[in-house]
Amino acid sequence: MLYEALSMSTIVVKVVNKTTEAEDIVSLELASIDDDPLPPFSAGSHIDVHVPGGLIRQYSLCNNPAERHRYQIAVLRDPQSRGGSTGMHQIQVGDVVQISEPRNLFPLTPADHYLLLAGGIGVTPILCMAERLATVGASFSMHYCSRSPERAAFLDRIGASQFSARSHVYFDNATARERLDLGKIIDAAPPGTHIYVCGPSGFIGFVTETARARGWPADRVHLEYFGNAPQDTDGDTAFEVKLASSGKSYTIAADRSVWSTLLEHGIDIPVSCEQGICGTCITRVLQGTPDHRDVYLTDDEKAKNDQFAPCCSRAWTALLVLDL
Question: Which of 28, 74, 144, 255 has its CA 20 to 30 A from that of 18?
Fold first, then answer.
């Protein structure tokens, strides 16, 4: 799973540095207003950022976890942005923003060796993990895939790092011999290796399927999504949602989400990512079968059909009764 529900506590920070790391990618360095140490964090942690315009988005911390004077995040400008990445790119040095304290649902677990795999902007938590593992002297290798050198963030930082010899970068526009041979890398992994992968859903699917095909134990593959895959909505139809507390029913049109429809009627379900990756809006289902379209719930949780993500999921049955 990805992110837990948004914490009610927030921290006010200032933007002390903004750097263009690659094409359409900027990093932001955040520090406390009074220059006091920030709350500690561990490798794999993220923060919720209150984006200008009222949105809330999650970003992984990508600096060394030993640092307390700053948090660093990196943001990819998404051409299909619903306002989050666009708003983040408009932030300037000197601006003041609200964030949550760091939380970690992608932690490093004890292992004999770590195989770190990053796709695109998914390099942010993976880079943080590499910093931590290098600091404690752990055995690991990092493999970073990007479309091209121009779109790959932190190349200079990786090249100058103490773990540069254990880092490998691959580009989609390279020759076949220079591209990632994941099967070969997995086959060569020493016993006791744990895989950590982050990136777009297609990249994560490629890694998990390759590992599964080679008999890799599922409990030694750890992942974090940076976005949900596009959904085929051509067959979507209307259905009814009933609130258990009031008994009122609402029609969810084929082109509307449960969340947005209920909001129009004054029922405000907390949301954050709006695409089923963060878990903020997860709601109990008392009756009916959800059409799960999130990447937050595990397969076992989805099979129970007792909760769903109203920001993106729909229904297989004509009626869903919600614990609202």
Answer: 144
Instruction: With CA atoms as reference, report the closest residue to 172 among 197, 201, 152.
Output: 152
Identify which of 26, 29, 27, 3 has the alpha carbon closest to the alpha carbon of residue 16: 29
Same domain, 77 and 118: no
220 and 315 fall within a common domain: no
Phi, psi of 204 (to 5 degrees): -65, -40
**Which phi and psi angles does 202 have, rounded to 5°?**
-65, -40
**188-201 confidence digits (pLDDT tens):** 999 999 999 999 88
pLDDT tens figures, 125-149? 999 999 999 999 999 999 999 999 9
Cβ-count burial of 56 within 10 angstroms (0-12 exposed, 13-18 middle, 19+ buried)? Answer: buried
- 117 closest CA partner among 185, 62, 196: 196
Q: Does 231 fall in a domain?
A: no
Q: Are 25 and 74 in contact (CB under 8 A)?
A: yes
d(CA 8, CA 56) in angstroms, rounded, equals 12
Return the structure tokens found at 273.
């990512």
Pairing of strands 113-119, 140-146: parallel
The letter for the amino acid at 202 is: G
Same domain, 250 and 314: yes
Token pair recorded at residue 272:
């954050």
Kind of pairing between the strands at 290-291 and 46-51 = unpaired
Indicate whether 233 belongs to any domain. Answer: no
